[in-house]
Amino acid sequence: MVRAWFMDTETTDQRLEHQRNPPEFVTLEDLYAKTGVEYFKIDVDNHQTDDTLQKVRKDRGYSYEDQITCSKECLPDYESKLKNFFTEHLHTDEEIRLVMDGSGYFDVRDGEENWIRIEVVKGDMIIIPSGIYHRFTLDSKNFITAKRYFVGEPVWLPYNRPADDMECRKQYVKKLSEGFK
User: Which of 8, 20, 135, 163 could form a Cys-Cys staple with 159, CB 3.0–4.6 A?
Assistant: First the structure.
């Protein structure tokens, strides 16, 4: 089951947990209310017939999928890619990740600019809304395999902060102030 918590402001080593001591955990309901990030538990060993995954894919129109493995052995230009993933950015589309194996962290900003760290492990699927500032890093195991889902052809462009004038960011900030539905 996914865990989420408020992070300290430390930024020197992306692979450390950097949690408040003791950590201030965030419930899934609060995570959604504060950020719009959605969570689903998926049976990855039977993901092709998992009812929850099939419903989410149908409801959102996800028509394309691929898979990525992040590890020193599998990812070309590993250190540079991890640095890029950890740079605070946003996307014009939702970011959907289903962890097939391994583990890692997605960090998202709440409405008060606090970082919330979301630990993901096998079977966790998160949907990060378009326009939210976020970043990704591996944990100390340095390995994750994840499915990525898209509507139509994949859009890979990250827009590094600041990107507050982008329409997707404006829409996200509006949803943040009105509440996610």
Answer: 163
Q: Give Rg (Cα) of the chain.
A: 16
pLDDT digits (tens, 9 = 90+) for 80-134: 999 999 999 999 999 999 999 999 999 999 999 999 999 999 999 999 999 999 9
Q: In 3-state terms, what secondary structure has residue 49?
A: helix
SS3 53: helix
pLDDT tens digit sequence for 4-30: 999 877 665 565 555 666 788 999 999
The CA distance from 59 to 67, in Å, is 21
Q: Which two three-digit tokens encode residue 114?
A: 């606090």
What does the alpha-carbon distance between residue 37 and residue 179 come to, in Å, rounded to a whole number? 12
Q: Are 14 and 106 contacting, i.e. CB atoms less than 8 angstroms apart?
A: no
23 versus 57: the higher-pLDDT residue is: 57
pLDDT of residue 153: 86
| Other C-beta atoms lying within 10 Å of the C-beta of residue 137 | 20
DSSP line for 20-35: -SS--B--HHHHHHHH
